[in-house]
């Protein structure tokens, strides 16, 4: 970069130029949430702006800005247009999450804000019990720990659609929502994961 005109500009002026082309205060998914795209078809750097891939020197200057001023999301897909079972889709999403975490270990992370891990579910599927219902979440917890992500470095948020379960005309609807929230939070705490539950409206 030193051999081109841009490289001869001052660092302050280069940063001003980067400000124009890099996103700021955005919520950015680090890989596609489309379940039809397998992880091997998505290089980990695909979501990074083109300017971060021009050359090694420019990458070193732009990546800290890109990661430092945006919020990044690991989306966990649980539904598609083909009515695939949510558990299968979640397992596929965990594959993508594991690949990204391995390429972006916590100890080398440039993130300034906690990594958001998000998922949405229908009704009571989060608290149903069968032989392997915990497996994808345990895989996620293991991947986070193995790649150096402490609980302060990520934030699990669950959007739960309870409206098929609750009586919307009931005077106790707020209490019923809180009860379902507690069930989901308890299920995740038992797996060693803390989460924030948001009730999805009709």
Automatic annotation (TrEMBL):
Chain ranges of the 2EXR domain: 6-72
Domain of life, per lineage: Eukaryota
InterPro entries attached to this UniProt entry: 2EXR, AN11006-like
Protein name: 2EXR domain-containing protein
């Amino acid at each position: 970069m030193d051999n081109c005109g841009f490289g001869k500009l001052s660092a302050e002026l280069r940063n001003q130029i980067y400000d124009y082309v890099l996103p700021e205060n955005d919520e950015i998914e680090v890989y596609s949430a489309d379940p039809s795209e397998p992880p091997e078809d998505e290089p980990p750097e695909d979501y990074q702006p083109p300017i971060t891939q021009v050359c090694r020197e420019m990458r070193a200057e732009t990546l800290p800005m890109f990661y430092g001023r945006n919020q990044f999301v690991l989306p966990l897909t649980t539904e598609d247009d083909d009515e695939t079972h949510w558990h299968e889709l979640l397992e596929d999403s965990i594959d993508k999450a594991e690949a990204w975490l391995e390429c972006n270990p916590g100890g080398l992370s440039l993130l300034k804000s906690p990594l958001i891990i998000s998922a949405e579910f229908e009704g009571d599927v989060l608290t149903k019990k069968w032989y392997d219902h915990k497996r994808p979440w345990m895989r996620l917890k293991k991947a986070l720990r193995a790649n150096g992500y402490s609980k302060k470095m990520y934030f699990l948020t669950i959007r739960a659609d309870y409206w098929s379960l609750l009586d919307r005309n009931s005077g106790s609807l707020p209490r019923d929502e809180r009860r379902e929230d507690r069930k989901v939070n308890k299920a995740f705490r038992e797996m060693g994961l803390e989460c924030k539950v948001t009730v999805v409206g009709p």
